[in-house]
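Chapter review: from sequence to fold.
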Amino acid sequence: MDTTETTYSREAEITKTFNLFWQKVFGNRDPKDYAKLLTIEDWIELKKTLSDVNNMITLKVTQAFVDKLQAMGIINKVQANAMKKEVDSIHPNTNGFDVCWDKKEGVKLIAEVKCNIPVKPHEFGAAQKNGILKDLKGLKDGKRSFDGENTDNYYKFMVVLDVEGVRDAIKKLCGNECMEFVNNQIDKHHIYISFIELK
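The token string follows.
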């Protein structure tokens, strides 16, 4: 009888996940041990690059949200193109709302975009919760970078990347304080949650 105990190896699990990802990216054409090819300096550079990955996902979700606004008839194509161009021109670390549209043409709206993946099944971690609640407060009360302007005259949106567990996590966090953005019947008194699934 084999009494050898199978033990957990963090390195083996990380290596397996890392290699499976790159094999999928390259279509399994070259199933190398990619993790073994990297030096410590490479891993550090990869860690720095992850912020760019997060920024790209946020940008794609923001663009998809603008497309959703257009599809629902809240903005027209010209406004959508101008809004996406403006979003693309803003540095990802700039303070303020992720979307702030207050031009004379069309509606005035502000939006925060969150791409959090729940750290627990169907629930956000403490830091994720704090970040989302801070952004919700900013949508409701305004921000210093908003020049002290009242947000009462704006349509307000919390835009969320629609991944597994996020709808339950948002519901647990926000309760009935926010409404889901499902049609163009919106008002300026509520904050609307817009779930965006990237395809």
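Two observations follow directly from the output. The first helix runs from residue 10 to 25. The radius of gyration is 21 Å.
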